[in-house]
Amino acid sequence: MPFKVAVIIRCYVYNYLYQIVLIFYPNAALFFLVLISYSDTINATKDTIRNVTLLLEPGEDLCLACPVTDSEVKKMEWWLGMKELRLYRDSITVTDYYKSSLNTCSPGNYSLGIQNIPINLSDTEYTCWRSGELLAVFKIKIEVTPTVKILFSHDNYPSTEAVVDDLTCVIYRAIQPFNITWFVDGLFHKQYMFNDRDRSIANFNSTISATSVPFRRNFANISCQIDGPFVAFGSNFIVLRHTFGQNDTAFSTLTAETSGKATSLLVCLKTSTLFEYWSAQYFHNERNQKCFAKVLSGSATVDEARSFQELALNLRSLKEHSNLVKIVYIAVDEVPQTIFYEHMNFGTLRDFMMSNYQESRASRAISKVVNMNKTLKHNMNNQLRDLLYFSSSVTKGIRYISKHKFSHPALRLNKVLLTQHGECKIYDICQTEKAMRRIAEHMEKEHPPIAWMSPEAVFNNQYTEASDVWGLAVLFWELYSFGALPLVTLSNSEVEQRMAEGLNLPQPSFCPAAMYNMMVSCWDVRQGHRPTFKEIQNQINDIFNNLEKEKQKDNVFENEQLPYFVLEG
Fold first, then answer.
1. What is the CATH number of the domain that holds 122?
2. Whose CA is closest to 407, among 295, 492, 324, 502?
């Protein structure tokens, strides 16, 4: 609940209670006011208390510093818990508890030091008080960070791959109690509990039979995880491939732990004929981080697998760019072949347009039939600046990949992802020389995105940089139409006929004439007459600069700050 709303509600409640007390117990009214005042004082004091949670391993030394200097040590106390056991009063030892010492570990502060902290102090609190007032709370959490590995035993057969008998999850450096849980393709498989009274750090393992693994396809993603009160979460992941050989059933395994990164496929989000899309994680900078994975389907042919591997290896040559979704890891030397992308949790540009700009359509219609007032014009100019920013951001991304011989057939708003700062990033690109294969895959769909495809790609089996220019202009049309889809009421054959005659989608009501004229030039059936990405970028810059000049000329927004983005050539 917002703070202001909470305060207002509390005031009404206090006033109501006070009126009742005043009517039925007039002698207690003054006491009630004092009680309310004391309650508010306590609530205000809570915000000034220092709360700290400390994460330690058993045997480490602990130093707690109260937020006062040792020169102010008057009526100071250290307690275990909320005054459950007093340890020190001023400089006097009250209870000798776990080799603690006063004012030895943090010079200049009223501090408490504990050496070789034991495991049974986990989840305890130390509190510092002055004249009965709580100054600081230190919560102690003791745990170790385990290393998790999956090992396998196997027999070797002539002219066959290794046949895996057992899978063993080995946990290095853990403290009981904890659970080891096995997952297959993100689903629970088996769990083992370790609950001995021994609280020392040790190594443990859990084994399952490979023949117990359920296969939904010719491979399974197997992971084991550990969790418990004294261990940080840890996991590892392998792929078990299922083949048929001499003894009817054989298994081979390949680990996805390479170059210091351990990856895990978690939940399958979407499947297509050739690919699966998973939410995933990879281990980096000492912790698991979210990512997104594109996995080659087990039904892919040898040629399709080779093509995917070639694409992945070529993607490695691309340097990181602010308008291209970052690849965090590539696993194409094992099954399943996978490309792991950075986690983008702010949705697609189409999602953003549909959720934020649909009400703007009514404003556009009104502005055509009435004289615009200054407020409406101000709002429209701000929205236009946003759309120009998105246009420039996508153009920079497609221009960058084009320089490196990559393309994006049928680029659309739902192929552009947004960062939390509104930066656009394109994904799902391919080599230009392989673009026609991507077009063929699109055309096999029930609803192919023909409206975003160039005529030479649809009719002449040809794809060039100019084909991407055509598609980019259709994306602009989507953008300035606030997420509307082009030619959505026409059949595939009718769309192809419109394309052959010259696309010329109608001008969106909110689209500047200069921007629309540029779109039309991109839809020229003659490839050589379409503008380049650099020319498109320059035209967007010009439109933005003209918008700024118009704003200054109108002198409406004198106190407004400068634009939050800068367009670059």
1. 2.60.40.10
2. 324
